[in-house]
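Good morning C.,

I know you're traveling, so I'll keep this short. The sequence:
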Amino acid sequence: MSGRHGTSTQSLDGRRNQAEDEGIVGDDREAGVGRVLLAAPRGFCAGVEMAIKALAWMVRAFEPPVYCYHEIVHNRIVVRRFEDLGVVFVDDIDDVPPGRPLMLSAHGSAPEVVRAARETGGSSWMPCARW
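The tokens, ready to paste straight into the viewer:
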């Protein structure tokens, strides 16, 4: 089997790569990339899983809208699904109405952001682990 530039479109175990078949990834020599291999199975790291589960819980536990400081993860599909469920992503704590539930970023938040979140008077949640 060969790709656009005559390179193999098989994974290491010989199966065709669905992402290559769909034109999502492949051989792009102009960009300096010879080949992209996608691991299978794929998924999110533990921190991202925890953040997604925490925000999903908030969506069930509180009346909409639920607010989230910054996008919960760097994944447009996940963010859009949460937006469809009534989550409002904000880049400034001042955009959160007083008393509304707020999830802080899965990437951690500066102490002044945490302080401002607490001052809104709503429920504030930090899905990331604190070390």
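Safe travels,
E.
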